[in-house]
Amino acid sequence: MDLLALEIFFLGLLGLASVGIVFVSGVVVKNLYRGQR
User: Fold this and answer.
1) CA distance 28 to 19
2) Its domain of life (predicted)?
């Protein structure tokens, strides 16, 4: 297994996790703001 391929794979996983966290937090903040009004 190439070390560079492994590094790219884990960086891709990290990017996907970051995007998922930002998406979920955005939905939660939007729902909180909508429930407050």
Assistant:
1) 14
2) Bacteria
